[in-house]
Amino acid sequence: MPRQRTYSASEAAAALGISVDTLRRWDRDGRIRTRRDAANRRTVTAGEIARLRGSEPLSQVELDAGPFRVVAVVTREAVEELGLEPGAPATAIVKATSVMLER
């Protein structure tokens, strides 16, 4: 059986569109399967990256705010932790360096 390509933690994080800190947290929480190399560094197989790409790590959250619509792209982990569900009431606090308005 051919060997799968192995990625360093930083390569895997970049491939998944997450930070290395998030990758470490997912490893501690058991959300991602990692291995350790001879120097005890985390590595991730190509198969594990493919598995996680299939379970999109980002979600788009939309809130109706009167005549405005607030849209944010957040991690699925944040959606789960906040208990957000379609149609459920939610409150947003916005702090941003730039805001785009559509008319």
Summarize the structure.
This protein is α+β, with helices and mostly antiparallel strands and 103 residues long.
Describe this structure as you would to a colleague.
The structure is a single chain. The protein is an alpha+beta fold and 103 residues long. The N and C termini lie far apart (56 Å). Strands 1-3-2 form a three-stranded antiparallel β-sheet. A two-stranded antiparallel ribbon has the order 4-5. It is built from four helices and five strands; from the N terminus they run E-H-H-E-E-H-E-E-H. It is elongated. It has two domains: 49 residues, Orthogonal Bundle (Multidrug-efflux Transporter Regulator, Chain: A, Domain 2); 32 residues, no CATH class. The longest helix is centred in the N-terminal third of the chain and has 10 residues.
What Rg is obtained from the alpha carbons, in whole angstroms? 18 Å
What's the helix count? 4
Coarse structural class: alpha+beta
Number of domains: 2
CATH architecture of the largest domain: Orthogonal Bundle
Q: Kindly identify the CATH topology of the largest domain.
A: Multidrug-efflux Transporter Regulator, Chain: A, Domain 2
Q: Which regions have little confidence, pLDDT < 50, spanning 5+ residues?
A: none
Distance between the termini: 56 Å
Shape: elongated
Please give the number of β-strands. 5
Mean pLDDT: 86
Biggest sheet, open or closed, and with what strands and sense? Answer: 3 strands, antiparallel
What order do the helices and strands follow? EHHEEHEEH
Helix content: 25-40%
Relative strand content: 15-25%
Strand order of the largest sheet: 1-3-2
Level-1 CATH class name of the largest domain: Mainly Alpha
